[in-house]
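sorry for the late reply, my laptop died twice this morning and i had to redo everyting from scratch. anyway the thing you sent over, i finally got around to it. pasting the sequence first so we're on the same page, its 236 residues, then the predicted structure underneath. double check i copied it right bc i was rushing
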Amino acid sequence: MPLITEDIPITLDPEGLRKSLPLGRREHWEELLPLVDKAQRLIHPRVTFRPAYIDEKEEGAVRIEGLLFQSRVLRKNLDQVQRVFPYVITLGPELEAEARTSEDILHNYYLDIIGNMALSLARARFEKGLRKAYRLEGVSFMSPGSLQDWGLEEQGPLFSLLGDVYRAIGVRLTESFLMLPRKSLSGLYFPTEIPFYSCQLCPRKSCPGRRAPFDPEVARAYDIPLAGTPEQDTET
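ok and here's the structure:
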């Protein structure tokens, strides 16, 4: 099935961005508003995705249209699923190019935060459209590299499953499976009745992108070892 490529119109939320900043960074918020306006002009969110179908479910792995994806967690999440939606979202290269032209560390710090917010908004907008277009009651997603169980090297088969991502939206993989432009997201969406967040299985502390607290009970259900897990940051 051919790739579907779409623009994702988003509007940055200055007040939401202000609230996401550390308290010590909020005092001079008014000075940053021009930077938000500039970022709005520089970002061009786009997504490329397609429906894909599961061929086979193996021990600790699934095969999707001939490509093997190795993850016990993914395998469990797809136990009752036959169709998934691989995707890549990007803001484009302009925001990063702006950061490269500046030696102002604080300027680039704020651009990075703004970019992360823009990606979050773009993903939410895409997810809403995906649910509507395919009449999905609920969906969750997993991304290569978000868990030790599903390593970053799984970007390889994910991009192969999609096809020519670079031609579609200008995103490519490095030899170490990082995406360029950096402000890009990738993963698999799948239908689910109970929301799943990779964060529930991750004990890492102080993660700014955390969407749900670490949940030992969920981790046990996925056979994730709990020995030595540190105290958790419960920010969502």
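Helices lie at 14-20, 33-42, 72-77, 94-100, 105-134, 155-162, 165-169, 216-221.
thats about all i looked at so far, will dig more tmrw
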